[in-house]
Amino acid sequence: ELTHAINFYATTATPDSSLYKVQYTLNGDLIVNGYINVDSRGYINDEGPGAGQNGSNGAGGGSYGGLGGDSTSGNEVGGPVYGSLTNPDDLGSAGGYDTSLGADRLSAGYGGGAAIFTVSGTTTLSGTVSADGREPLSCSYNHAGSAGGTVNITTATFEGGGSITANGGNG
């Protein structure tokens, strides 16, 4: 399994060069038979350019290429959409957290990480590449889910029957 470290200290102000990502340029072929897994490796703890809104009656979902959901009360909104639809290269934003009852912001959802490959030859995918966001750790509060991250594969030829996901986490 290929992954990268959790971006524990990433904030909206963190320079891109300081963010952890799986990023390779290959002169040749890429064969993925196993897992490239950067699930929950993006922005954490209500951080990121698309972080969901925190609130005392729920929280908004994290956003990236798509809009995160609003809280069930409708008072806390999902974060703003950001990044490129055609050449994504960023991390998914964290969901917001419920501030009531001393809720722990560390248990809110973590955004998906980034897996970026530029391959001059053929990419054969028989395994899995995933950059999914995480649902909140605690169901005791109304924390929100986080945004999926980036899977960006630029290649001369693509083949195989594997799977690629960058789904957001449920709230």
Summarize the structure.
By secondary structure, the protein is mostly beta strands. Helix content is 0%, strand content 23%.
What does this structure look like?
The chain is mainly β and 171 residues long. Helix content is 0%, strand content 23%. The strands form two sheets. Strands 1, 2, 4 and 6 form a four-stranded parallel sheet that branches. The chain has a three-stranded parallel sheet with strand order 3-5-7, with no helix packed on it. The model has no long low-confidence stretch (mean pLDDT 87).
Mean pLDDT: 87
Class per helix and strand makeup: mainly beta
Q: Report the principal-axis shape.
A: elongated
Helix content: under 10%
Total helical elements: 0
The total beta strand count reads: 7
Uncertain runs are none
Radius of gyration: 16 Å
N-to-C order of helices and strands? EEEEEEE
The major sheet is characterized as: 4 strands, parallel
Keywords:
single chain, 171 residues, mainly beta, 4-stranded parallel sheet, 0% helix
Q: Can you lay out the helices and strands and say which pair or pack?
A:
Layout: E1 22-26, E2 30-32, E3 35-37, E4 114-125, E5 128-130, E6 150-159, E7 163-165
